[in-house]
Amino acid sequence: MSDHIPMRVAVVGATGFQGGAVARLLVERNHRVRTLSRRPAGDRPPLPGVACASGDLADAEDVRALFEGATHAAVVMPLVYEAERVARYARNIAAAARDAGVRRIVYNANTRVPARVTSLAAFETRRVAEEVLRDGGVPLVVVRPPMYLDNLFSPWNAPALVNDGVLACPLPARTPVAWLSHEDLAEAVYGALTADGVEGRTFDVGGARTLTGDELAEAFARGLGRSVRYEPLDPSVFEQGLARVLGAEAAAGVSGVYRYMASGAEPLLMAGDGGAAARALSPAPAPVEDWVARRPWQVWAEEATGTPSS
């Protein structure tokens, strides 16, 4: 389908990590990409080949301008956890996509979502957005990723891993997780934009295999070529570190997912899907050790010691 016909894609969230990975992949494959950002032009990350306009998802006219001429859309919501605000974003997106004649929206929920309603804004705001988009009159595909490997390549995790061989994560060691990279997420979103017969479906992307904490540490050890041990991190400590980067509200929302998983309420929520998403949408995600081997981990040794690593 769209694999051979250039798409004009409105990518909501392209200035973030996940939407940015999607935007880059689309550009690499010769599709036209537009996005919207509240940040001043000088504060935006470089996105070669992506047209970026100033605007706000809360402004219906800004969103309408983003979608003008678009044939497809890839959407990931910002780290906002106020239900009405998120619902407003989703309504504006749905209306603009419908009016523009968009053929398909792919919504990345940014997390798996429990089957039952919870008290956590991190899940329920993503559920609200999905429901609004599903009722918006444009064919929808939903992808729900598990945990991101890229979160482990971070200032609150990587220095201890590089210097001490400690892989600290706010999940119990026995929790099974299908870890996914942003690059593999982008492949899944691309497949959801282009594959036939997937409209209306929801995919728990992430591959067939799940890893416990100890198994994750073993995969990191193979990728790094050194001994690595797993240590569960207190979600409160994780939230404090994240707040310094994202702010208190966003950090509380993100850490809520880890708290839910640590509670044992739904231990298989982030587990693999038996490979169903890969068969329908994209190649199977790369092994964790391959992803690890490609990261420039030495930057974190420099960060921690002030001198380049050998």
TrEMBL record:
Occurrences of domain NmrA-like (ranges): 8-242
Keyword Nucleotide-binding: no
Stretch forming the signal peptide: none
Superkingdom of the source species: Bacteria
Transmembrane segments: none
Key words, A-Z: NADP
Family matches, as InterPro entries: NAD(P)-bd_dom_sf, NmrA-like, NmrA-like_oxidored
Pfam families for this protein: NmrA (PF05368)
Parts forming coiled coils: none
Family: Belongs to the NmrA-type oxidoreductase family.
PANTHER family (UniProt xref): NITROGEN METABOLITE REPRESSION PROTEIN NMRA FAMILY MEMBER, NMRA LIKE REDOX SENSOR 1-RELATED
Protein's recorded name: NmrA-like domain-containing protein
